[in-house]
Amino acid sequence: MDTSGFFSSFSGKALAIIIAVLVITGLAVPDTYLTLHTLWSKNNETYSHGYILLMFVIYVLVTDFRWQKFSPSFWPVPLALGAGLVWLAANAVQVMLLQTLVLPGVLWCALAAMVGIKNSLKTLVPILSLYLALPIMDVLIVPLQNLTTWVNTKLIHAVGITAFIDGYDIHMPYGVMRIAHGCAGLNYLLAGVCLGVFYAYLNLQKLSLQLRAVALIVLLSLVGNWVRVFLLILIGYESKMQSELVYEHGFFGWVIFAILAVFFFFYAKRLEKKDGEFTGSGDKPELKLNGKMIGALVATMVAFAALPVWWNQNTSQTNQDTVEVNLPSSLEALSVAKNDLARIGAKYEGHDFSKVFTGRDTDYRLTLAVASYFKQAQGKELIYYANQPAAGITGKVKITVDGKPVNAALTRRGQVVFWIYRIGDEVVTSELDGKLAQLKQIFSSPVASALILQVDCRGKCGDPEEVAGALTPQIKALYNTKVR
């Protein structure tokens, strides 16, 4: 490898192209990038290593010349189009995890368009390592939390600390310490795997030695977290829960990780001696840009960005002023009220439009609420865990009213609530069916609404089916209430 100067040790063209790909992708899917920024900018959290990992991946790609042999290919174009379609589907149902998972794939498609499929396979290690900074790794939290609790239970018994352990809670004479999700050690494990993977990739050639290096850092990361938690328990016990470390211990864990990392590097150096002569990153290639390469790269990026850009343009054209709620004859006796959703106990985060109607029907006071979304985003969506059709709902059930399924529930205020979801022209009752309806109408950008009928019978409501029997026409009318 040519090391005559700093600027000769990396490829400026590769760096410029990678940065351009990242920028173009960010412009196409800005909300997804914003989610990653929020995730990566939280200090001492699980994915706080995200920006460092991204910079190191870029560094590795631009200094490793083994893959930088321009051999333009249009094969990645349909793969990039598929990635755009996956992003669009994930955005339609607001599954942010899937939206982030396509991003490393888009970068790999761009590299493959530059250098061909064969050469791009040499970039898979750094590209796949980006998944170590994506929230897919959250699946490891509970198993690691359970393992940390088990190990520390054994250690507490071994040293004779007076404590009662109930699940994740450690009851000591001076207070309670909890092995929470943050104590699972996922952040240290991910940082360790990143360190081991890149060290093995850059310094070792034999697969067996690479696996040994990664296995060692995984073990050290796990042991380091167990030691960290146990030391905090000891400190809490001996200080009678007065030590500041009991409450602020993020940096403490990284100190332990750094100490154990030193042992890793000593062992890794021994592995290098057992390895064959390392070929390094190769000689700096002559990367001559040509029309075919530029065309393949542009076609790949356009293939990915086309659907997200179209989606953003299409949904931004919806005008709130044009929305109308058309009530069927069975609900025409209701009149528009000045109440908003909060006043009636309904909650739909970030809704774009709402309207409330009130009126009486014999012994019942009826409140009809409509909450609609024109453009949904993470946390601003119809199907969301924090949303509710009324306050204090208990005992949600699904009932059938004259052949029409509806959701029903009682409230602590003695109301009965009935509700359905309308996505475009399709009416559903379950959250899963609502997501699927949004997916099926992905290219029409339908208005998504919750239609809610609250029934107040002065605290004398029977079960939902009894009330539904008396208000069958009004409940069925939810299906014919149009939001356009």
From TrEMBL:
The chain crosses the membrane at residues 12-29, 49-67, 96-117, 124-144, 179-202, 214-237, 249-268, 289-311. The keyword Methyltransferase does not apply. One of its GO terms (biological process) is proteolysis. It is an enzyme of class 3 (hydrolase). InterPro entries: EpsH-like, Exo/Archaeosortase_dom, Exosortase. Its EC number is 3.4.22.-. One of its GO terms (molecular function) is peptidase activity. Signal peptide: none annotated. One of its GO terms (cellular component) is plasma membrane. The keyword Plastid does not apply. It is found in: Cell membrane. It is a multi-pass membrane protein. Keywords: Cell membrane, Hydrolase, Membrane, Protease, Transmembrane, Transmembrane helix. NCBIfam families: 8TM_EpsH (TIGR02602), exo_archaeo (TIGR04178). This is Exosortase. It comes from Salinimonas iocasae. The lineage of its organism: Bacteria, Pseudomonadati, Pseudomonadota, Gammaproteobacteria, Alteromonadales.
